[in-house]
Every structure is written in structure tokens, then in C-alpha cells.
Amino acid sequence: MASIKEFNSRIKSLVNTRKITKTMKMVAVSKLRKAYEAQAHAKFYAQNLTALIARISESVESAANPLLEVREAKGNALLLVFTSDNGLCGSFNHNVVNGTTDWIAENKNNHRKIDLSFCGKRGMSAFQKWNNTKDYYENVTARPKFTDAKRIGEDLCNLFLTKQYDEVFLVYNQFFNPLSQKLIIEKILPIDSHELMHNADFRESAEYIFEPPVAPLLHFLIPHFIHFKIFFALLENSAGEHGARMTAMDSATKNASELIDRNILQRNRARQAAITTELTEIVAGVEALK
Description:
Blueprint: H1 4-59, E1 76-82, H2 92-107, E2 113-119, H3 121-126, E3 133-137, H4 146-161, E4 167-177, E5 180-189, H5 193-199, H6 214-289
Parallel strand pairs: 1-2, 1-4, 2-3
Antiparallel strand pairs: 4-5
Helix pairs in contact: 1-5, 1-6, 4-6
């Protein structure tokens, strides 16, 4: 059994660890509140924008805009992977990495080449030995900004329009609550009007009279839709990260408290055993002097 001094050292270390995890939990709660509010405010706009683009893209030919053009089946694909910059958030990043790996294994025969781009340091680190890495967008996940999403969206649209890639996918965790995130892998380029109609729960198509003309209207709306999809994925990723970190730090704090109680009990037992041994030695010494 360890000595009383060793138990005291362990307990002190665990108490300090509990202070850190409790503080990190409180910080995560504060950040989660802000991230959740931003995600909730953007969700309604995202749903209505998706429905609008679904109705318009369903009513026009794919030739009306090059971002609607469906390419050959076995083309080049690009996955934009969203993770966090920091760890200590449970299985949040692990789920994205595993989901990306599984998707590549399942779809490698459907594409000539599959490349990866990253928003978040943890994803980049996980695939740093992967040969087919394209871009890494640094410092965009901690505080999601539409300007960053627009820059990323313009890069993706240019890669698609120059035919370097025939399909572009987003890989991120969809936030439901601090205990639940769902891995989402969705295609954003080319825009699939049928898939959008299904997601928007809109079944009927219609013919529209466009003012301004359809070409300049789509030239504005479709890139804006792509940019906002990326921005919304950044918001989902941010809320999920802080929720996962809050849950992980809460669990770590509880585990530290349990370990402290266990070590205190063991220390008290060790102290009692030492006292009993000393008393036995004293009694034995007195008996020897008689």
C-alpha cells in the first residue's frame, strides 16, 4: 500500500485537476450558449434559403448555371472536413475522422480521385499522412464568420468551375444538444435540385417568371447559397464542439471527484493501519519491560 505522503500528493494533484476541468466546463458552457444562439438564429434562414433554391433550381435547366451541372459518375471528389482546433471534447473529432475514413473506403471505386480539405486543426492532424490533401483553412472554426465561409465557398466554386473536381462534399457534426451530434456528409456541388426538394420537404415544382432574368439571379443566389451552407456548417461545428467539451469536462470533473474520495478513503485506512501498528509496538515494548 502507498504511504500517507503519496496519498496526499495524489489527492492534491486530483484536486488541481478537478479545478481545471470544472473551469473548462464553465468556459465551454458560456461559449456553447453563444454558439447555440448563433446556430439557432441561422437555422431558420438556412431552411428558407434551401427551400428557395430548391424551387428555383427545380424549375430551370441545369445549363442555366454551371454550378447546377451534373458531371460524369466517376469524377474527382473533394471533401471539406470540419473539426475543432482543440481537443478535450470527447469523441467529437473522432467521429468525423472515422466517418470520413469509412466514406472514402465505401466510395473510392465511384471516383477517380478523392481529396480532402480541412477546417479545423484536428482533422488536418488526423490526415496529415494522407497523400490527397488539398487545402487547410486555419483559424476559421473557433469563431465562425461569414467572410471566412465566403472565402472558402469561392475556392470550392472555382475548383468546381475549372473542373478540377466534379463533386464537392461537406463533412461535419450536426448539433442537436450537448449530448448528441450527428455526422453529416452532404454534397453541395453540383447542386442537386431533387435532393434539395426532399430536404426542404417541398414536393411540387412550378414555373416562375423571373425578374431580373434567370441567369443573373442564379449567378447571385447559388454562390450565396453555397457560402451560407459552409457558414452554417461552421456554426453547427462550433456548437457541437463546445457541447461535446462541456459534456467531456463534466464527466472528467465527476471522475476526479470519485478518485479523490477513493484516495481519501485509502489514505485514512493507511493512517489507521499506521496508528494500529504504533500502538501494537508500544504495547509490546511495555510488556517486554515488565
